[in-house]
């Protein structure tokens, strides 16, 4: 099976050239009433000879409809090419941005593996303290037995170890990086966890896609060891529209997602369990925008991110 290749550059260039040509047609008076001149339109009486005037007038009258139709068709074709260029570019740019962001965040702190390990160690530390308190034992010191050099053991009282150190809290981590067509910048909280990431993908002829994701506090880890965090993403699409996507995660794996597009369209999704599929739960609406009674269906919006 042959591969499908989409040239954003060619589509976008065709759209631009058609729009420029359509603008040139719009600036002329060929399809206006009368005969076009440098100073405006005139009627056939300026020629003096009625036969000559009628012939010239008939010539421009014959041109008017085809040029007007061409102008309309060029506008339609330009719009179609632009929509295709934006749509296909945004799909690839979204995938590229996820790869780029993942590379930078992994480089920043081997995210999320290091952070997941820290969360597990901190949980164990807190559990140990709780057990000591429950048994009435000290939480600041403990007894350690060391060899006395003569075959025996000596009891020593030593300080209790402190809590684990968050990854990245004392080490230098890259704040940005570039991979392929995309660049990503991350910000970190004082404890070293990722606070936000912004990724921009630039394509040919000025096509640009960007998204900024803000991460909420960790609620623990999922079965794969990844932090469970709510997120808010603001996506700027290449056609100038935008989406604000809010994801609410639950420790049991269930989640909801709401996508609000700049055109006012809101699309809702839900997921059951960690391996569940995102399901469109947007209530359907009648043509008059009132709630429909049929089964809920979505009405568009930005595609949900892959887990």
UniProtKB/TrEMBL annotation:
Organism superkingdom: Bacteria
Extent of Polar residues compositional bias: 186-202, 209-297
Annotated spans, Disordered: 161-307
Biased composition (Low complexity): 168-185
Protein name: Uncharacterized protein
Organism field: Actinospica acidithermotolerans
Lineage: Bacteria, Bacillati, Actinomycetota, Actinomycetes, Catenulisporales
């Amino acid at each position: 099976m042959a591969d499908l290749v989409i040239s954003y550059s060619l589509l976008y260039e065709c759209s631009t050239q058609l729009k420029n040509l359509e603008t040139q047609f719009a600036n002329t008076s060929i399809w206006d009433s009368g005969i076009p001149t440098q100073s405006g339109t005139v009627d056939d009486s300026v020629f003096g000879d009625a036969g000559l005037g009628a012939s010239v007038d008939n010539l421009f009258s014959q041109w008017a409809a085809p040029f007007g139709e061409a102008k309309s068709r060029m506008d339609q074709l330009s719009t179609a090419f632009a929509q295709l260029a934006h749509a296909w570019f945004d799909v690839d740019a979204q995938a590229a941005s996820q790869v780029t962001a993942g590379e930078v965040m992994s480089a920043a702190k081997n995210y999320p593996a290091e952070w997941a390990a820290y969360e597990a160690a901190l949980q164990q530390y807190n559990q140990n303290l709780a057990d000591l308190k429950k048994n009435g034992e000290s939480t600041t010191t403990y007894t350690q037995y060391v060899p006395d050099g003569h075959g025996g053991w000596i009891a020593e009282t030593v300080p209790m170890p402190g809590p684990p150190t968050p990854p990245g809290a004392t080490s230098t981590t890259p704040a940005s990086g570039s991979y392929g067509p995309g660049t990503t910048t991350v910000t970190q909280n004082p404890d070293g966890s990722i606070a936000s990431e912004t990724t921009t993908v630039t394509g040919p002829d000025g096509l640009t896609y960007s998204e900024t994701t803000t991460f909420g506090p960790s609620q623990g880890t999922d079965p794969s060891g990844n932090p469970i965090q709510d997120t808010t993403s603001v996506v700027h699409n290449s056609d100038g529209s935008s989406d604000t996507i809010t994801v609410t995660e639950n420790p049991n794996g269930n989640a909801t997602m709401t996508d609000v597009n700049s055109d006012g369209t809101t699309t809702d999704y839900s997921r059951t369990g960690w391996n569940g599929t995102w399901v469109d739960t947007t209530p359907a609406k009648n043509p008059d925008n009132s709630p429909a009674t049929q089964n809920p269906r979505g009405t568009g919006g930005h595609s949900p991110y892959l887990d």
